[in-house]
Specification:
The protein has 13 helices and 11 strands. By secondary structure, it is α+β, with helices and mostly antiparallel strands. The longest helix has 35 residues.
C-alpha cells in the first residue's frame, strides 16, 4: 500500500491511496463471512452459505463498502502521524476505483486552515448605535401596549379613520370586460388602517369609507394587497372593494387594573410600570446596538481579510443550511426541494460564514481568548429565571448531562468575547438611531447598485 499527499491549493490537499488486492483481501473476506453468518438461504444451514455464493450475490456492494472504510482508516492513520498538516472540515472522497479481488486507487480531498494575518484595525471606523431612551419613547411604547389591549367598538355610521379596523372583500376585476375574475377573490380580510404593511393606495381609498360601501381601486401588484410588498410598481391590478365592517379602538386608561392585566399581576402601580417599560426599552436598545455592531464587525473583518476558504468548510455550512430546511419540515426535505440549486444559491453565504470562522479562530488564538467556569456561571445566571441561581455543582451536572447545550453556551460566550476584543481595536463612532438607520440604508443601496439590483427598502 502506498500513499501520497499533494498540495493542490493554498488551503487544499489531495490524499492518494494505492493498495493491492492482497492489502484488501483480509478485510473483504471478513466482511463476506459476516454477511454469510447473517444469511438464511434455502438449502443451506444458517451461517453456512459458501463465500463464493455470497461474493457472487453481494460482492460488489460489500467490496465498495470495505474499500471506503479502508481508505478512510488509512487517511486517519496517516493524518495522526503528520504533525505538519491538520485537516479542516469534512474530507471528501473524490475518486474510488476498486473491483472485488482487484487493486484499489482512491483520492481524498481535504482542506486545511489558511494563514490568517490580522490587520491593524486602529484606523478602521465602526459605527456604534447609541440611543438614550426618552420620555417620548416610553410614552410611545405604553401607547403601543394600550393599542394592543384596546377593545374594538362599532362606529355606527361614522366613516373609517386612519387608525380604525376594517373588514373587507377584495375582488379582482378584468378591466377589458369590466367583470369579476372568477376565483380571484379574497374574503373577510381584516386589518387596521395604521398597519405599516398595508399598501398606501388601499389605505387612502378606505379612509372615509363606511360599512356597506363598495368602490374600486388600482393596486400595485407584488404581495397580497393587505400585506404590502416590494414588487414592480408599474404593474397594477383593478380591484372591487366591499366594506363589511368598521370598528374603532377603545383605549383603556392607564390605571392599576390595566397595569395588573398587562404585567400578569406582577405590578399594579402605573409609575412603577412606566419605570419597567423604560428599563425594558433600555435593555432592548442595548441588545439591538450589540447585534448591529457585531454585524458591522463581521462585515469589516470580512472586507479586510481575503482569506481563502477550503471547499470542505463551505460544504459543511451548506450541509447545515440543508439540515435547517429539513428541521423546518418535520425532518424531511420538501418533495419539490432542489438541493443542487439551493446549495448553489447559498454558496456565497456559506463561504462568508466559513471565512468568518477562520478569522474568528485566529482572533481567539492570537488574543488567547478563553471561557472560564466563572464566565459560564455568569451567562447561565443572567439567562436563568428570576430568583434562580446556578451553582458550581449544577454547572458540573449540566456538563455531564447536557454537553451539547453547554458547548453551544461556550461558543456563544466565546463569540461575545471575540466581538468585544475586536471592538476595542476599532475606531468606534457613536451614532444616533436615525444616523445609524440612514447609514445602513446608504450601504444597502450601494450594495444593491454594485450587484446590479434596484435599490430597495430599509436595511435590516
Amino acid at each position: 500500500m502506498e500513499t501520497t499527499i499533494t498540495k493542490s491549493t493554498p488551503v487544499e490537499y489531495e490524499f492518494e491511496v494505492h493498495a493491492t488486492a492482497d492489502d484488501i483481501k483480509p478485510r473483504l473476506n471478513k466482511a463476506l463471512r459476516q454477511q454469510s453468518n447473517n444469511m438464511d438461504m434455502k438449502g443451506f444451514r444458517q451461517g453456512k452459505v459458501p463465500l463464493g455464493m455470497v461474493k457472487k450475490m453481494y460482492g460488489e456492494a460489500i467490496g465498495y463498502q470495505v474499500a471506503e472504510e479502508y481508505v478512510q482508516e488509512v487517511f486517519e492513520d496517516t493524518m495522526e502521524e503528520r504533525d505538519d498538516i491538520e485537516p479542516l472540515g469534512q474530507p471528501l472522497l473524490t475518486e474510488l476505483d476498486y473491483e472485488v479481488d482487484g487493486d484499489l486507487h482512491a483520492v481524498i480531498r481535504f482542506g486545511v486552515s489558511p494563514e490568517v494575518e490580522l490587520k491593524d484595525l486602529s484606523d478602521e471606523e465602526v459605527p456604534v448605535l447609541k440611543h438614550e431612551v426618552t420620555e417620548e419613547d416610553v410614552e410611545e411604547e405604553i401607547e403601543n401596549i394600550r393599542t394592543k389591549e384596546a377593545d374594538l367598538m362599532p362606529v355606527d355610521d361614522d366613516p373609517a379613520g386612519e387608525e380604525d379596523w376594517v373588514s373587507i372583500d377584495l375582488q379582482r376585476i378584468d378591466p377589458s370586460t369590466d367583470t369579476p375574475i372568477i376565483g380571484d377573490k379574497e374574503e373577510d380580510l381584516s386589518f387596521f388602517l395604521d398597519d405599516e404593511r398595508l399598501k398606501e393606495e388601499l389605505r387612502a381609498a378606505l379612509v372615509g369609507k363606511q360599512a356597506g360601501d363598495t368602490f374600486r381601486v388600482r393596486l400595485p401588484q407584488d404581495a397580497p394587497p393587505e400585506q404590502g410588498g416590494a414588487g414592480a410598481e408599474d404593474e397594477e391590478r383593478l380591484y372591487e372593494v366591499s366594506v363589511h365592517d368598521v370598528k374603532r379602538r377603545d383605549l383603556p386608561p392607564i390605571d392599576a387594573e390595566f397595569v395588573r392585566r398587562v404585567t400578569e399581576g406582577e405590578v399594579e402601580d402605573p409609575e412603577t410600570f412606566r419605570q419597567e417599560v423604560r428599563d425594558r426599552l433600555e435593555q432592548a436598545y442595548e441588545e439591538q446596538s450589540r447585534e448591529m455592531v457585531q454585524g458591522e464587525v463581521i462585515d469589516k473583518m470580512l472586507d479586510l481579510h481575503g482569506v481563502p476558504v477550503p471547499d470542505s468548510v463551505v460544504e459543511k455550512y451548506l450541509d447545515s443550511f440543508v439540515n435547517q430546511v429539513r428541521e423546518r419540515n418535520d425532518g424531511e426535505l420538501p418533495d419539490d426541494f432542489d438541493e443542487p440549486a439551493f446549495r448553489q444559491r447559498n454558496r456565497s453565504d456559506a463561504e462568508k460564514q466559513g471565512r468568518w470562522m477562520l478569522i474568528r479562530d485566529e482572533v481567539i488564538d492570537q488574543y488567547g481568548i478563553e471561557v472560564s467556569d466563572e464566565d459560564l456561571l455568569h451567562y447561565l445566571n443572567r439567562h436563568a429565571d428570576e430568583g434562580e441561581t446556578i451553582s458550581e455543582a449544577e454547572l458540573r451536572q449540566y456538563r455531564a448531562t447536557m454537553p451539547q447545550m453547554m458547548e453551544r453556551v461556550r461558543q456563544q460566550i466565546l463569540s461575545d468575547k471575540v466581538y468585544d476584543t475586536l471592538l476595542e481595536q476599532f475606531d468606534t463612532q457613536e451614532k444616533t438611531l436615525e444616523e445609524f438607520q440612514d447609514l445602513m440604508e446608504q450601504r444597502h443601496r450601494r450594495r444593491q447598485e454594485l450587484s446590479g439590483g434596484a435599490p430597495a427598502g430599509h436595511a435590516h
